[in-house]
Specification:
Layout: E1 2-9, H1 13-28, E2 33-41, H2 45-55, E3 59-61, H3 64-69, E4 75-78, H4 85-94, E5 98-101, H5 109-121, E6 126-128, H6 136-146, E7 153-161, H7 182-185, H8 189-205, E8 208-216, E9 221-223, E10 230-232, E11 238-245, E12 250-256, E13 265-272, E14 275-280, E15 286-291, E16 295-296, E17 299-300, E18 309-312, H9 333-350, H10 358-377, E19 381-382
Parallel strand pairs: 1-2, 1-4, 2-3, 4-5, 5-6, 7-12
Antiparallel strand pairs: 7-13, 8-11, 8-19, 9-10, 11-12, 13-14, 14-15, 15-18, 16-17
Helix pairs in contact: 1-9, 4-5, 5-10, 6-8, 8-10
Amino acid sequence: MKELRVGMIGYGFMGRAHSNAYKRLTDFFPVNHRPVLKAACARNKEKAEAFAKVWGYERIETDWKALVAADDIDLIDIGSPNNTHLEIALAAAKAGKMVLCEKPLAMSVKEAEKMVAAVEKYKVPNMVWFNYRRVPAIALAKQIIDEGRVGRAFHYRATYLQDWTIAEDVPQGGPGLWRLDASVAGSGVTGDLLAHSIDTAMWLNGPITRVVAKTETFVKERLHVETRKKQKVTIDDACMFLAEFANGSIGTFESTRYARGRKNFNTFEMNGADGSVYFDLEEPEYLQYFEYKQNQSGKKVESHLTGWRKIHTTNSEHPYMNRYWVPGTCIGYEHTFLNALADFVMGIESGKPTQPDFRCALQTQKVCDAVLKSARSGKWTATGAK
């Protein structure tokens, strides 16, 4: 096996999720590259050392520039806050490293375009961790749609709801709460949550051409962890937008961190002339599918038996499931990252790059930016897609 020597930047939630995927890749997928956890990088030396010890990294770095320049690193994984993505990606691409990046790709379209230009100029393999594409049930939805079983699309609706910022005494900023600081995160729920919904929607239903949006910030000031002073909150706590797709269908998207009782409620439904699909991340092993039939082979359809099917996506015929357990046994959230990494590595080996790469994620960034622009202007805003 050829070694794939990994340099991980970031030790938080995504650092753990990605590291688990590297450690388990060859246990489940017959690839020719074996990930080797070479170095973990973070500014806080003590926390970096603790992370490296738990996950088995050979050493730590406290300067990402040293990691990017290291001769024993093949792949740079950017799991650090959003405002670091641009500089690290540009340097990693120039150094000839493979680049994997957490979502959203960047703070803005302008930054994302520079990142795309860099990875394409230096011809380095790249991917953005939109891991929900690798939920077997969502991948099955893609298969059903591609097989023409939904038919002409009419509606797409998505929700992504959480409740962890409702309390007014939750501060903003710092290592744990940087997602509430616009100078670090770029935006609130639009970039953090709706970026997932947008990527999934365009993967299933094609390009979004224009949007009209409304955002709201419910708590206007919060204590900042670093300054210890109350500062204006400039992220969006909630966002709703209408969308038009290139195929003529229309969509609704809603996201908030103020939905009491919702921890990570991520759903979508797509309705077409011939059927519908529905997914709920709180029941990730299921895909719901409705098939509309009038007459087939001259046989009259028994209408009293029509209805939604709840498909338990654990059979070996379902996407990714032939790599895991026997039918009826489920995989978890962590496996979505493992599936994404497997696709990336198989793309390297086959010469057919996996998606979403940086260029694909740029279009998601364009939709996010259009949503925020529309929320400011109150007007329909084009995304640049056709």
